[in-house]
Specification:
Length: about 725
Amino acid sequence: MSDTTTATTTATPLSKVLGERAAKALATHLELHTAGDLIYHFPRRYDERGEHTDLRQLQVGEQVTLLAQVKSATVRPMRQRRGTMLEITVGDGSGATLTCTFFNQAWRERELRTGRWGLFAGKVTDFRGKRQLNGPAYQLLRADATQDEAAEEIEEFAGALIPVYPAAAAVPTWTIARYVRTLLETFEPPADPLPGTVRANRNLVGIGTALREIHRPSSKEELYKAKYRLKWDEAFAVQLTLVQRKARAAAAPGRSRPRRDDGILAAFDAALPYELTEGQARVGEEIAADLARAHPMHRLLQGEVGSGKTLVAVRAMLQVVDAGGQAALLAPTEVLATQHHRSISAQLGALGRAGELDGDPAGTRLTLVTGSLGAAARRAALATVADGSAGIVVGTHALLYEGVDFHDLGLVVVDEQHRFGVEQRDALRAKAARPPHVLVMTATPIPRTVAMTVYGDLETSTLSQLPRGRSPIASHVVPPERPAFLERAWQRVREEVKAGHQAYVVCPRIGDAAGAEDDGEPPSDNEPARRPPLAVTEVTPLLEEGPLRGLRIGTLHGRLPADEKDAVMRRFAAGELDVLVATTVIEVGVDVPNSTVMIIMDADRFGVSQLHQLRGRVGRGSAPGICLLVTEAAEGTPARERLDAVASTTDGFKLAELDLEQRREGDVLGASQSGRHSHLRLLSLLRDSKLITDARAEAAELVGDDPTLARHPALAASVAALVDEERAEYLEKG
């Protein structure tokens, strides 16, 4: 590059830096379009000569990049079909080895000679107890190099630490490293957006230094400083956004909905057949005080499965109805909306049937709005919503459509909020003349740092007690090495049914080919493909003809027509079915107290929080519940350890921490919500709690002094880049 070469900025298209071919590959396979995209495409880890990935720690299913030495190479004919297979064995000096297989590529034996060192990338699979990489991409170090020479070549390749990037088959990590080196030759870092006082207070390196060191670290110490600075940028951008939005929400005009001592809520409380738990009473007071203020409530209500969140929400809705307003409860599925309507109707009794023959004229009306309502029923329901006679409206996303007009929407309750997109919540809020109060409910326990980072502009209330009379749930893993355990599981179902109880059998798939997992690898004669997840439509007939023969079995999944789903749930709730074989459509809100046993097939295909939610469907009555986690995961695998952890505790907050450890941070922060490319790369909500707390404190101080960041334009632009508007709305939560 000559001295007259134009400097590369974050906005420069990659085609100008790397050429059209490389730019097209990065755009197509990794969604990287500009120099900024590539410079913020950080390594996910670093290999080091003599201290690289330990082959003994590899897990089946992992995508890996390894620094290893060829130990042996053999070519043999394939047994099942014509052609040859090249099998090489590589080791890393730890004593462990890994097999790499290549089909009909015997010519590779000439370069993959014993003693050669190289970088090997691929997916770890298992064949007859041996771990292998099937057709890995690789880059060999200089032929016949001594170990010292190999070390020099690695040093030249990327310094002492070898960056391993999130990559694609067509653009492997070493190719990305080469592109980054080319980019860094002309890259001009942006002006540092962080105020000098913040950098000094927190001992942060400059942005230019951080961006260079994270790609080509000169030492582990400098790499740590670079990562810390870039994590700070991510945390600070999120916290600034949340602090600004919380301040704006606190100042927004709303409408006070104070509690009355002689209204429907007082009558409802007087008729309750049980006392509120201490937690329900405390959270109820917090919400009542919020509703009485002239600014919209923005509150998150989290509570364990079965902790009584719905009752708290009903009491809040009745307070708003008493104050002349309406309340809408938004549920993610028709099954759950119908269930809520049925249970709230039972709780309210005559107080929810005003205008009917047996209704209490001092009460209100409860209306259900779903997409499957017939034309006449829909017109009647919408009329009660529009004229205000329906004080409580329960529905799915059908509430968001044109033609659903509220008389005076005062409170929006969003159940299982993670199932809804921001646009859906906003559409419902927009149906109010003034911003309504918002109560967001979730049964997924949220670790403190997640609450601070994802729900940081909501006040948080937590219900940790279970109502009196709720039974304990015992959970056990049914493993592949104990086949008799599965037989015993089906016997247990028959025993519970004989005792007058009911059971769930949960499968991860409905039953079409599109739902099957696909490893995306060509079939080989030595690697059986992972079978598709078990499906409701396949398991049901096997149970009917086999271990549960003679029992009354029903099926429930998301593709059934709405009226059929409702009919199945009604039959199960009425005790007309003994066993319900279902997908995760039963995960939230379904309440059948007579259900005492749940068998989850292919339990390792579900997430930790999902398993915890599912098992909350049993043990909801006076009889104890049991949840059996059926798996083919072998002992010692991460999947098995995850199931063992779920079986060992019913503490949702412990499990939430485990779930967070095993999930990508981007999922937690909502990257999948917007579908947009995100620069939030490094921040760990689990490991960086102190950094997040410090960033929150600095953000609160800065916004208090400069609410719109008018005096810090570079920082405002940086926040906009790191937390785009879609993500900012996602973070707003409601």
